[in-house]
Amino acid sequence: MDMKVEQSGDVTIVAINDRFEAATADEYRTTMYDLAEKGHLKVVLDFGKTAFIDSSALGSLVSSVRKFRQHEGDIKFACMNEQVRPLVKIVRLHRIFDIFDSVDTAVSSFS
After folding, report:
1. Cα–Cα–Cα angle for 11, 15, 17, nearest 5°?
2. How many CB atoms lie within 10 A of CB 39?
């Protein structure tokens, strides 16, 4: 999985630049749980270059937001492209996650 993690102030930006599927869901989950345990509790997921997402990945998203919220943190989505946005709406994740058009707007929403 091509995943890039960077900091913007106290917000961690995780860009998923490839296919997000069963084969990569564990790597994502491990990365996110590690961030939560280290106290990086404000996360923006950048889906701008995500080519594909499957049900295993969706499950990983839900389990990771549970972990963050247990620690008083949150995960927000940014740059939902046309491969990801319809699936997120079908499974109603837009009711669980705040979704923003840009990474900058998502980062600013934590202020």
Report:
1. 175
2. 9
Query: In the CATH scheme, what is the code of domain 3-108?
Result: 3.30.750.24
CA-to-CA dists, residue 106 to 21, 25, 40, 64, 91, angstroms: 24, 23, 15, 18, 21
Q: Say how far apart CA 28 and CA 20 lie, in whole Å.
A: 9
Mean pLDDT of 40-65: 93
With 0.85 as the threshold, say if the pTM is over it.
yes
Residue 102's pLDDT is what? 97
Give the largest CA-CA distance in the chain.
35
CB atoms under 10 Å from CB of 27, counted, come to 13
